[in-house]
Task: structure prediction
Amino acid sequence: MTNDDGRHRDEAVAPDNTTDDQRQVAPTGEGAVQAAPADQGTVTPEPVRDDAAEVAVISKPAAIGFVAPAIGLIGLFMMFPAVWALYLGFTNYRLTGTAAREPEFVGTDNFTRALDDPLFTSSLWVTLIFVAASGVLGQMGLGFTLAWLFRRWRGWTRRTIEVLVIISWIIPGSVVAFLWRAFLDGSDGTLNAMIPGDVTTEWLLRQPLLAIIIFNIWRGTAFSMLLFDAALNTIPPSHLETAKVSGASAWQTLRDIVLPSVRGHILTTVLLVSMWTFNLFTPFLLTGGGPNFQTEVMAIYVYRVAFGQGQLGFGSAVSAIMLLINLIIALVYFRMLRERRKKA
Result:
């Protein structure tokens, strides 16, 4: 054995005391990778690019092209009529006469005239009573009560109730109004037939405001019930079970657990029901705004002055006032919701 062979064998057996940073890989050919020296740091391998995981992003012009038709339709059928109606509110535009051909700009005269009109004040008062009694107290109160009572029902009974509720909600308002006129008719009405004795009360003439309030409660309770049913399903069952084990009564459970948990849903329902009821025109199909303007809500008042009397400019001004009231209701709602989120 030669000295060279011994030296090579000793080098193979001797331990390698060099560190990884000091070790350098000998080139093995073209394209060989060398480890970086200690003074140059460690080379981090580049991540493998997965083309399949990349998400395709459309360009800005393409995105604008996709949303442009929707924006155009909204602008054509919603924004333009609203702006045009607001403009007409500052003119004396009418359906007939010289004002129809050459309307004049009258400024805020229509708005001041509306605020000075006793029928406008009466209509606003009737609308507020109608919203509070039939919408907030009636629809929401009865809707929440039914949702709370039926929350434990399961199977075909619950499905049947849900179907009946949805059917009562999707029936057209004109059909519902016709049914209620037949129900409240003074001569051959169903309500008079149900009362013992020979009763011929004209309910739509004797109690017109109460009639449209009950009519709207029946019409819209289903919507509130569906919203509150979904809200009650978000409450964890463990909270209710804990209250039951602790000996809390049904009222205490409702006050301390249920209502705080669904407060946000209640605020949302108040906004939707209030704005929906405030702009409702369906009572016209039941009473026509009478008798003696006792059921003339704001929507009927606008219809009467704009189309019945041909004063489109004045009617547009009243519509703008209605829009302002709806905006105030929405702002109050958002303020209350913001305060609730801060407390939470």
